């Protein structure tokens, strides 16, 4: 019997083998089915092997392979935290593979996707398993590069090359930050193993610097503002099942890196670091969802909404840090479990929504919601699954998004016990921004579903759309069922997550499975409790009761007629509300502040028969305030340095001579 | 035996809110009419309206989907469950722990989510305008509501409505600034959420500034009845919530016996009557505001909630 970590590594090896197989057979017509079938099977096996580790909460298993740095080897370790993230990765991987079995047949260039898909999965698995800095960074880069290749799969499409370029720059920047963070952690002795780092003492200034570097490195990968700009470009550019993996799973792997270093390797946290994480998290949540609201490309909207959810997760992790720094173990466990629960939930519903967006894309060829509409009639099953995802991500009971947000709010309510003034003032503001983000998320997904699936078709392609294949539908419905189950049985999920909190924080939430009627009770019943199952049963029962009584004793007659619309029946579907007009009130309330949104009406002079036009002008504050100046400076320098390219040989020789003398001078003064 | 009687009390509570909701709206309308020197319709007119709508056939738009047809029942059920979980005459009801205040607020959010979707289903511009404004109002009202919940929960040490009501009825509360702010915030949110003046006008139809009525314009027959009933229940829910959190005097506890229940119910109905007088007087004395003034109104509610919560963090005595 091999150890659990060895079994996971075998799965990874098979995934890498599948990559080789995919390269060999990529021109064959069958390769799509072979590759996705193989990744589906491997992901399911890996999932079934890591779940027992998580549930049983057994001891960590380790393994050293004789590759990598010669004096170090490659260390791998599987503990509760790694097992949880492996479950997230492999569940997402299995769903994406199942979806790919159907969706992949629409692929125009399968040889650009198939080899990288298993490699990407393998990379994510390896990051979670790695137990030394060298292996971690190597696998991290492998994961980044494999996903970059997938982003560039359709490299001829407009904007995809730019997306790939920005992604590559940001990924390199993130890895640089991680490299420095691990350098600091390993200290002068160069102990690159995680076990050595965990045992070492870190001074407060060093710990603060490592946290800042982790926020830059892991935060840029996860999509933390203001390092998120690459995410809404890159995630939508990839094929939809890969978008689902990148948004639903890869961002979680980045969060894993953050948790592993900050909660595990860095030792006891400092409360001031919690303030930074809280501020960044809540700002990310609000900025992300506001950007999502302004978006009309369905996949970009989903990518921006990922940023919002990452913000919620980081805010929750910040709460956990604050409580842990003050020795409030139970509250820390509550906030931490809430973060983990939201990680799991987000991987469910974001994958589901990206699959839905992919189904719309493959059926209509459109990502722009302003050209869609009325798809609920032509894609009934897809629209139902997408609706479940929308309700879940909008944090509405009885689905899973609400259960985790509820836990976050319960954690916020524990915060008056915190002694520091900075945190006392900060935490209510975090609560307000999370509440605002949740309400805006509901508005955003009313828009996403309403404009895409409801109303009348706005274009011939939307008119002619049809339902997608069975594999895609099966993947969507499997995730929808998971969203529902995690929503009505949150107590069971919390119990599964508790060993992770126990291992990292030394405390755990009370056991929930023993509570009557499967309620969740974070502290005690008189303070707060929630029962998703009962709420669902109540709503179903009362709704059925109402339907029964009305159809039995009142009327059940129905007549179809033209829409009423106060008598103003619009002849063209273009007269419907569009996405841009739907968010106009919110744009006027929030957008003028955040995006400097301005509306101009271009009115033709009298006698001119052209229609008047409304133009909306918006600015991305992060891009224009932070990235444009940096990129401008790089261009400026490059232009200046460019002159060096066209010198005569004498000038080059004198330059070399001058450099040599300067360096020698520096050396002389230095020593 | 105890369980059965407890469930019975819970059922009484569910029926009570269901029966009282149209009456409350009718009563408010009657008082408003009297204040305007009109005679006004009978206080039982809402029941008659509901019955009339229930008996009529439904005229569905040609392209209405299944979502349009199930939404009235979903919203009605969600609001009814929310209203049934607020203690009216007795605390500690059998199922009160299945959803705390945050979950109840979110339940109303579910109802609104589906209603806003249904407004967009047929694809008319009226439905779109209604849904669009409804979600804008919700985007501000919901955070304000949650901050109010935080403030109350921090004072009472619980988000459980039964515990909150018991705490507020006890003598340890006293007068607190933060509670006052929370109450004003809740009242402002309640006015906005129920489409009352000054945010929306429940009596108008076909006015360009309308929100709620535009969203449900395509509904007819029993579907409209369900939505109207939901709106009645929602108004009663908010009034019950204000009563339960800020004026829980004479509220009894489950198991106290029939006489105590009757006294609690009497006090509840008395408080409802006072609330309807106040609401009618306020609505008669105020003018409706422009749609883009609403964010300022709700922003004030949000700030009040935040200030109340902050005060609570700053000092335990506020």
TrEMBL record, chain A:
GO terms for cellular component: plasma membrane. Its EC number is 1.-.-.-. GO terms for biological process: ATP synthesis coupled electron transport. The chain crosses the membrane at residues 6-26, 33-60, 80-101, 113-129, 165-188, 208-230, 271-294, 301-322, 328-361, 381-399, 425-450, 471-494, 530-550, 652-670. InterPro entries: ComplexI-like_HydComp, NADH_UbQ_OxRdtase, ND/Mrp_TM. It is an enzyme of class 1 (oxidoreductase). Keywords: Cell membrane, Membrane, Oxidoreductase, Transmembrane, Transmembrane helix. This is Hydrogenase-4 component B. It comes from Bradyrhizobium ivorense. The gene is hyfB.
TrEMBL record, chain B:
GO terms for molecular function: lyase activity. The chain crosses the membrane at residues 7-28, 73-95, 101-123, 135-161, 173-192, 231-249, 261-282, 294-314. Pfam families: NADHdh. It is a multi-pass membrane protein. It is found in: Membrane. Its main location: membrane. Keywords: Membrane, Transmembrane, Transmembrane helix. The keyword Cell division does not apply. GO terms for cellular component: plasma membrane. It comes from the Bacteria. The keyword Methyltransferase does not apply. PANTHER family: FORMATE HYDROGENLYASE SUBUNIT 4, FORMATE HYDROGENLYASE SUBUNIT 4-RELATED. This is Formate hydrogenlyase subunit 4. It comes from Bradyrhizobium ivorense.
